[in-house]
Design brief:
With 253 residues, the protein is an alpha/beta fold. The protein is built from 5 helices and 13 strands. It binds benzoic acid (BEZ) and fe (iii) ion (FE).
């Protein structure tokens, strides 16, 4: 008969777990129809299925697949990544508007190997929201590739870019994901963060996020993605701030 053995094995376990849950809670026909309608609604909303997957399941995939053998902790990519962001020239400034909401942030650090060698020419693909929680490509009116860019480390493995301090934000909650969160009595906030994808020939690429101390949502992130190793303190001075993080990449196997 053929088929895919892994799909067969996982689907068998998924259905068995679902049947057990339905029996445990005596699921009614009304509840079954409500679940079907909710899934249909999510599918028709286009963007809601990936959002829901990222909110409820992606951290587990990340935890399963992150090898605990040194290197910067990984973190989920999330649904707001856009590939091919502009390759920036030094001095690096993430593309932004003159009146971009958010305090000025200078973010710097290094990229080195797990053996401690600085990695020159390592690529950092950076994306974030602005100071009022808006991601370009997902919020109307924000220019394409706003606060998105790619930059490389210098000869001593160091990088520095200027941007704005991102704010915490609510994930889109007008659709099926938001409806579920409301029914669960859960808020939709993520703590402020900057996303990074790091790569260098001969090393394992790393996707991660950097969070900031004292953020009110660190302990109740809707995605539950925060790891203490990825939380830094921003040095604030009036309307500007300094952040620093030293990334570590593992040699490719
Ligand atoms: C984010 O980091 O942007 C994100 C991750 C998972 C779900 C929603 C947003
Ligand atoms: Fe994000």
């Amino acid at each position: 008969m053929g088929g895919n053995e892994r799909v067969q094995a996982i689907f068998a376990d998924v259905t068995t777990a679902l049947w057990d849950i339905m029996k445990k809670h005596d699921v009614t026909w009304d509840e079954y129809r409500a679940a079907t309608a909710w899934l249909t609604e999510a599918g028709n909303q286009g963007y809601e299925i990936p959002l829901m997957m990222d909110v409820f399941l992606s951290v587990t995939v990340d935890n399963i697949n992150f090898p605990a053998n040194g290197g910067t902790e990984s973190n989920v990519e999330g649904p707001f990544y856009i590939p091919e962001a502009p390759l920036l020239d030094r001095p690096y400034v993430l593309p932004r508007r003159d009146d971009e909401p958010g305090d000025t942030l200078v973010f710097s650090g290094s990229v080195c190997s797990t053996e401690g060698s600085p990695l020159a020419g390592a690529l950092l693909d950076v994306w974030q929201c602005n100071g009022i929680g808006e991601y370009s490509h997902f919020h109307p009116g924000v220019p394409e590739y706003n606060l998105r860019g790619r930059l490389v480390t210098d000869d001593s493995g160091r990088y520095e870019f200027q941007t704005v301090v991102p704010s915490p934000y609510e994930i889109p909650k007008a659709g099926a994901t938001g409806k579920l969160l409301t029914a669960l009595g859960r808020h939709a906030f993520r703590p402020a963060h900057i996303h990074f994808k790091l790569s260098q020939a001969g090393f394992r690429p790393r996707t991660t996020q950097i969070y900031f101390e004292d953020d009110p949502w660190l302990d109740s992130d809707v995605v539950e993605a925060v790891k203490p190793e990825l939380v830094i303190k921003l040095e604030r001075n009036g309307n500007s701030a300094l952040g620093t993080y030293d990334f570590v990449l593992q040699p490719a196997a």
